[in-house]
Amino acid sequence: MDFISLMAPMMGTGTGTGTGTGAQGGSGMIIMLVAMMALMYFMMIRPQKKKQKEEQNMRDNVQIGDEITTIGGIIGRVVTVKEDTLIIETGADRNKMKITKWAVSANNTANEKAEAERQAAKEAAEAEKKAKMEEAADASKARRKKTKKKDDTFDA
Fold it and tell me: How far apart are CA 69 and CA 104, in angstroms?
């Protein structure tokens, strides 16, 4: 079977004898095409635009002293930032290279800072959880002592 024979019932061009099937099939086809376009937009185009926006923001926020990785895999430290270009130092001999901003693949310094912040937040959450657990244990001990005193007073 080919595509046209599969789509014929939707278009209303089949061998059916019903009336008005052409108009219904055509509107169904249009609705299906609109739904497919919407699905394609939300699954492919929108995430790509979001990723491009994040990359452009990262490139615009490169500062002097940041360690970057270029698209070609060159790792260097930013020495000068201009409107569309960067000058980076690479290697032990401090060779300088002039590159365009669009060639920056990753800002390693910003990634390290973000990772350190995530780690600090995780440690703070763990410390808070531990403090709550200790507080609950202390409260439990205090309750046990109260109930023990009450039991002792009833015995006497």
Answer: 6
Reported as a single tens digit per residue, the pLDDT across 60-102 is 999 999 999 999 999 999 999 999 999 999 988 989 999 999 9
Over residues 2-41, the pLDDT tens digits come to 766 766 666 655 554 445 455 566 888 999 999 999 999 9
Structure tokens at 68: 């970057």
**Cα separations (Å) of 145 from 141, 154, 155?**
6, 14, 15
Q: What is the pLDDT of residue 115?
A: 84
Are the beta carbons of 107 and 58 closer than 8 angstroms? yes
Residue for token pair 């763990």 = 126
Helices (H), 19-107: 21-40, 46-60
Q: Which one is predicted more confidently, 60 or 114?
A: 60
Number of domains in the chain: 1
Q: Check which CATH number belongs to the domain holding 86 and give it.
A: 2.30.30
How many helices and strands in the chain, by DSSP H and E?
4, 5
Q: Extract the tokens encoding 5.
A: 């024979």
The Cα 102–Cα 86 span in angstroms is: 10
Give me the domain span that covers residue 101: 62-108
